[in-house]
Design a protein that fits this description.
three-stranded antiparallel sheet, 10 strands, alpha+beta, 51% helix, elongated
Length: 285
């Protein structure tokens, strides 16, 4: 078999073949090299644009790279086909008819693409924003024309088709609100505790740069079975309210310990006929 193949190759007039198609091969090679250079130059330009570290730049960077790649490859393919004297008009006409036929069978894909376009145009959210879409919440890792990728706090990646996005809650636009409820036992002096919390709030406002406004002691918001609930509230920079709440709780616990004020615990009161009133912690008999 190899001998027969070798005989066929030796019978080919390579000189005539190269003189006939050599220019075409060189043109195709030149088109491929230029396309590769254009791809690299475009990607470097887009990466330089995305170094601005803004959410908008990071959102558009992957999308622009994809669009640039498709455009360069499409133009290169058209030019290569032209070297073989393949008419582009019938191909484009056929592609148009095929596109209409595919469109009827891919309405969901078209819906995803259109929705993705308007999400980008209206700037509803960007890469790095913390959003809620339906039952999914997480940080946006990628916003494409077809899907949005969310990474939740557990590390799970949620891939959501853009056509399924009806309502979006963007938690990263505007200031966040930190809210901490402090339980005060009824045995403690409530006014004294509120005064301590107000003093502590002033210290935290000067200490934590994430706090924009407050913290403010709103007062008693609830009276439960074993405690009075005092609420503290503050305005923070976007998505920093969780950290501020943790710092406020830690500071409150340390300050109340130093002031000799214990935190409340569940309890119940037992009344027995013919005996004195006795109060016991929950769980003891």
């Amino acid at each position: 078999m190899m001998e027969a193949l070798w005989v066929k190759l030796t019978r080919v007039d390579w000189t005539s073949l190269l003189s006939t198609h050599g220019v075409t091969v060189l043109k195709i090679a030149a088109i491929a090299i230029i396309a590769r250079l254009l791809l690299g130059a475009g990607h470097r330009f887009i990466e330089q644009y995305s170094r601005k570290k803004t959410n908008k730049a990071q959102t558009l960077s992957p999308l622009l790279k994809q669009l640039w790649r498709y455009l360069v490859l499409f133009l290169a393919a058209m030019l290569i086909l032209d070297q073989f004297n393949i008419k582009l008009t019938p191909i484009l006409a056929t592609a148009g008819v095929a596109g209409v036929a595919i469109g009827f069978g891919a309405q969901r894909l078209v819906r995803d693409l259109i929705t993705g376009f308007f999400l980008l145009l209206e700037d509803q959210y960007s890469v790095g924003d913390y959003i809620t879409v339906g039952s999914f919440s997480g940080v946006v890792e990628e916003l494409g024309l077809r899907v949005t990728r969310l990474r939740d706090f557990n590390g799970d990646l949620h891939i959501i088709p853009n056509g399924n996005i009806d309502n979006v809650t963007n938690h990263a636009r505007g200031n966040s609100r930190a809210r901490v409820d402090v339980g005060v036992p009824y045995e403690a002096d409530l006014d004294r505790v509120i005064g301590i919390l107000q003093e502590l709030s002033s210290e935290l406002a000067a200490k934590l740069p994430e706090i924009i406004e407050g913290p403010e002691v709103l007062g008693v918001v609830e009276l439960s079975n074993s405690q009075a609930i005092v609420r503290i509230q503050a305005q923070t920079t976007p998505l920093q309210h969780w950290q501020v709440e943790r710092e406020i709780r830690r500071a409150i616990k340390n300050r109340l310990d130093r002031e000799g004020i214990s935190l409340p615990y569940p309890r119940y009161v037992i009344y027995q006929q013919g005996s004195n009133r006795e109060e016991k912690p929950e769980g003891n008999s």
